[in-house]
Each structure stands twice: as structure tokens, then as C-alpha cells.
Amino acid sequence: MAHLVSLSWEVSRQVSLRHIPPVVLVAFALGCSSGDMAAPEAAMVKAPKVVVTSLLDDGDGTCTGLKCTLRDAISTASAGTNVTFADNLCPRGATPTTGCKITLSSSQLSISKNLQILGSAGYILAVDGGGVVSPVLAVTSGAVATVRDLTISGSPLSGIVNQGTLTMKNAAVSGNGTANGFGGGIFNGRGGGVTLASSTVSGNMSAFGGGGIYNDNGSVTLSSSRVRGNTSGPGGGIFNLGGTLTVTNSTVSGNTAASSGGGIFNFSGGIVRLTNSAVSGNSAAADGGGLWTEGGSVTLSSSTMTGNTGGSRGGGIFTNGPVTLLRRSCVNNNSIGITVSSAPWSPVNVDIFTFGTVTGLNCGVAQP
């Protein structure tokens, strides 16, 4: 009888196995040890975590259960660590103006490994240079860093200097820079890559280029982000020097240049691509209230440049290089001084200099 039961179970088992895909059988075999299936959670590897518990910047190079500063968290964390912040570090709903701020007392915070710094959703925390420390945050070559739900502020030069790969999500870079240097908000060095997602760069300043962002032969990508209210010599909002600037579903607005390129200054082979984006309300004392470009290329797709003001030429665009307008992009209603033009191809809106070309329809109108 026992033999019959065993035989019946074996037949049933073989029939059942015929209906299980081979890949599942292999996975089952690899996941079993001594007849037992491995626990599903064993296959999941969680990133290590270090929790910041202090707003001070007086760390001693260690993190303990009693105290861990942001500086010490960064220095002691192993590669791949998530640096987070205690829920009670600031009161819920607190902001930098109400004291939710880490003011650096000595030197920049330097990231030289792969790291994520993840702010709290319960309050808005700023890491501030106190008007002394510059930059506030530096990402070295080869490092891959993510900064989320944080504000970087208070640097006398650049808020962030990046030479690695930096992604910022739901973050802000504001109130950095003085009448000196390059890239008041962010300086992206040669070969570096910066991605801003749902983030804001505002109220920063520099003397020599890129009040908000200076991109030196690197890559800068904006997605659902804002560059606004920044000031500089050239490139009030963004100065793109030989790099690639990609702007999608974003705005560049209210920036000011003491020379040219109120919104964007593109130079030395730089590539600018704007998609579903707006460049508006920017001003330049000289040329290109919205955008100034020479020696590189600019493409607008489903994008607009309106309400910008130039002092001399090209309230919307001043170009000495190739510009392409796609998918009903529109450069119109810009001004030179007090002269506003609603004629899309007027030099007030698009000023084409010696080596400049513009291809495509402007506001649906062909070039005369």
C-alpha cells in the first residue's frame, strides 16, 4: 500500500512539473538548499544607511548612536551608502529660514565615492556655506552622487563644484556667489555631468559667467526644473562653454546679464537643446536677452522665447551660429530697450549675425 501511495505521488509530481516553465524550475533549483527554498528577502540587498542626527558641523570623524554630523556621515560612509537625516532633526514643516540649516564651519563637503544624500520629506533642510565656505559641496572626478530634498546655499563663490556625476532631485541651489568667479550656483567642470530633476537654481550670482550654472565642456540636463532670478556678466542664467545643455519641460526666467545672454550664453562649440521649455523675462545689457550663441548649435523643439529684453541686438536670440526651430517653436514679443516686436522675424526677436543661420518656422511663419 505504501508503495502504491509513493508511486501515485511520483506520477502526480511529474505531471505537475510538465506544466511549470523550465526557467521557473531552474530558479527553484538554484534557490533551494538541503531541500528548502531560500527566503525571498535573502536575495534583496539593501544599501547601507548612515543617519545624520546633528545640525552642527563640529564632528570628530566618527558617527555614533549619540551624534552624527553630515560631514562625518559623508567621510565615514562606505561607497553606495544612503546618507539620511533623522526625522526629528528639525520640526516638521521647518525651513532654512526657521533654523533648519547646517552651517559649515571649516571647509567644503567633498564627495569622492558613490553616495546618496537624501533629505527628509518632513522638513526643508539647507546646507549653507555661511558666506565663507566655497563651494558648499564638491563632487570629485569619478564619483557618482545623488542629492535629494536639500537646499545648497550661502557660498561666496559656487554653491556646487562638480567634476563627477551629480543628480539633484527636488533640490534647490540658491543664494550663492558674489560679484566674482564663474557659476554662482553650480560650476560643472570639464567632463562632469549634472542632472537636475524637479529642482530650482535661483538667486545666485557671478561676475564672469553663469550666475545660475556654468558648464565647462561637460553635460548639464534639466528636467521639470527652473533656473530663475540669477545674475552674471555673460549668461545670467546659464553659461554653456563647449558643453551640452539639454533642457526639457523646464523654464529659464528672470535672469540678468550685465553683458550678453540674459537667459543662456552658448559659446565655443556648445550644444543647446530645448524641448517643451520656456525662456522668458530675461534681460541682457548688450545682445541676446533670451539667448546668445556663437560657434555652437541651438535647437528649439516645442519651445518659446518671449518677454526677453536686449540692450543692443536680439531681444530674443542673437545668433552667430546655427539655430533650428522645430514643432511650432516661437521666438516673439521680445524687446530691445523699450521697443517690443510681435513680428517673429524682426531683428528685435531674432538677430542673425555674420555666420548665423536659422532653420525652420518661427511661430509658424517662414523666414522672409
What does this structure look like?
Strands 3-4-7-10-13-16-19-23-27-31-35-40 form a 12-stranded parallel sheet, covered by helices on one side. It has a 10-stranded parallel sheet with strand order 5-8-11-14-17-20-24-28-32-36, with no helix packed on it. The longest helix has 17 residues, at 2-18. The N and C termini lie far apart (98 Å). Strand 1 and strand 2 (36-37) form a beta hairpin. It is mainly β and 368 residues long. It is built from 3 helices and 40 strands. Residues 1-43 have low confidence and may be disordered. 9% of the residues lie in helices and 38% in strands.
- How many strand elements? 40
Tell me the helix content.
under 10%
* Major sheet size, sense and barrel closure: 12 strands, parallel
Please state how the strands of the largest beta sheet are arranged side by side: 3-4-7-10-13-16-19-23-27-31-35-40
How much beta, percentage-wise? 35-45%
Low-confidence stretches: 1-43
Measured between the Cα atoms of the first and last residue, the distance is: 98 Å
Structural class: mainly beta
The radius of gyration is 27 Å
